[in-house]
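User: Here's a chain of 105 residues. Predict its fold as tokens.
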Amino acid sequence: MGERRQRYNEEFKKQTVKYVQEQTKSIGDICEELNIPKSTIHQWISQYRQFEQEAIHHPEKMRQIEQTLKDAEAENHRKEREIEDLKEELAILKKALHIFSKEKN
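Assistant: Prediction complete.
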């Protein structure tokens, strides 16, 4: 008779994907270690992948961190410009208040 398919529960799949993400080994090495077909691991990765769990040296994790940093820097720059604009407006309003509050002779 044919070989019986191995079934894995949801938690095992998630833990395996987490293990793959945290390791510096290749997926092929991990597949041999766990005795799970490579295609199965790839399916689980596409289904359960979480970037937060990946090692920092992973290229996609680096791109994600760089993009987050760029977004934060852009937002910071925008807020700094807004603060400078508001300071300028406040200075103008103070001058106008000073001019219009003088008594007329």
